[in-house]
Amino acid sequence: MCNANDTQPRLKRRPVGRSVEHLEQLMDLEHGRMSRDVFWDRDIYEQELERIFARCWLFVAHESQIPKAGDYVSTYMGEDNVLIVRQKDGSVRGFLNTCPHRGNKVCFADLGNARQFVCNYHGWAFGIDGALKGMHASSAYEESGLDKSAHGLHPVAQIDSYRGLIFATLDPQAPSLAEYLGDFRYYLDAIFDMDEGGTEFIGGCVKSVIQCNWKFASENFVGDILHAGWTHDSGAKAMVGGPVAEVHKFPEQSYHVNFNGHGWEFNQDIVGNAATLGDKEIMKYLYVLQPKVAERLGELRSKMIGAISSCTLFPNSSFLPGQNTFRTWHPRGPGAIELHTWTFVNRNAPQAVKDAWRKGTMMTFSPSGVFEMDDGENWEYSTRTNSGFVTRQQDLYLGLGHETRLTDTGLPGNVYRGQINEANQRAFYQRWFDLMEAPSWGCVPQRDVATMEVKA
């Protein structure tokens, strides 16, 4: 999207929108089959950057990271580096972190407070509102008739927030954030609105690189509880002296829910994830809080606050209640991601509990954490193994499982009971396919929540 008063002529761009041919032949969700090219092919990846990461609403910051005017964070939307900046009027704006003169970054810090952003190369200076304020040897530009109002930082198309989570989209035609999250907001409230003080990020951001395709990480958190009892068994024993709870033995307490590719699997044990941190103060805090959450949000959601569960917000942000890790999987080609991880806590929680959560997330889900090493190794080999030519000719199985669709619970979204299923994964890839096939938002199929069939 250009600046509103930009009257400068524009160069003809390289055509975009060329669709990978026969994408429908790479995925058969009805029969649970998927081509390995989905995780390996470079053309598919480039189309993901265009039709998913340049189109969807992506998590870019938490309100607690930018409380004052001039506060900013630097993050990514796909491979586009962006600045998210608190304005003087309290609003939040976003801009591409690139100078319109020669393309250098205008900010190299991850976060901070600034009165302006200045390019190291030729001294072009921009206000926190993105407007070009001046430059080194400005008279030379003025003599050429440069219109400074037409050369500010390129803005993101839309930016909005929900329960402290700030999202942005690079597509001016994207639906509103409220529509994009839709019914899934009911479940987000269980974690990010369980306490009247809301949440905050603490302890800074941990960055790491995993040599895997971004979809392996996203679909793991969208609802793959089944791997936990196998992959994380030894890690859980090391943390708490016992195995991961076999939640699949209690299907009546277990749910998979999804909406527009967002997915959450959860148990109703209140503290299952939190228990893996091995901290009694966290457990006590959650048990005391649970009846208050029941009054605020109802009994079912009050049992989700630290339970065994995981969630992905399509396409590439995930979190774990209880362990309180929030992460974004930034794509770096078909075979790599840059993982940004934070610890989130209730703002009103005692400081000792906040400190315990920060320590706990480092012990479990960080580059040296006992659980993250397990996952990272699996995802890397799942990606790397596909380099073989003959291997890539073999389909992958996206299991149909034994899920039971619920239609009479009153819960929003597409709801299943029981843990032995891949319903959320199939919904995730259905949303991926719909976006990859559609040349614009207006062409993205609208699916009935109850049947996942395209609406008439």
Coarse structural class: alpha+beta
Largest sheet: 9 strands, antiparallel
Number of helices: 13
Mean pLDDT, as a whole number?
89
Fraction of residues in β-strands: 15-25%
Overall tally of domains: 2
Q: What's the β-strand tally? A: 22
For the record, the CATH architecture of the largest domain stands as Alpha-Beta Complex
Fill in the CATH topology of the largest domain: Naphthalene 1,2-dioxygenase Alpha Subunit, Chain A, domain 1
Uncertain runs are: 1-6
Which word captures the global form? Answer: globular
**Percent helix:** 25-40%
Keywords:
13 helices; 456 residues; 24% strand; alpha+beta; disordered N terminus; 2 domains; 4-stranded antiparallel sheet; metal-binding; Rieske Iron-sulfur Protein; Naphthalene 1,2-dioxygenase Alpha Subunit, Chain A, domain 1; 9-stranded antiparallel sheet; single chain; globular
Structure, described:
The chain is an alpha+beta fold and 456 residues long. The chain folds into two domains: 58-160, Rieske [2Fe-2S] iron-sulphur domain (Rieske Iron-sulfur Protein), CATH 2.102.10; 183-443, Naphthalene 1,2-dioxygenase Alpha Subunit, Chain A, domain 1, CATH 3.90.380.10. It contains 13 helices and 22 strands. The strands form five sheets. It has a nine-stranded antiparallel sheet with strand order 13-19-18-17-16-15-14-22-21. A four-stranded antiparallel sheet has the order 6-5-4-7, with no helix packed on it. A hairpin with a 5-residue loop joins strand 5 and strand 6 (92-96). Helix 1 packs across helix 13 (423-437). The radius of gyration is 23 Å and the shape is globular. The two termini are 32 Å apart.
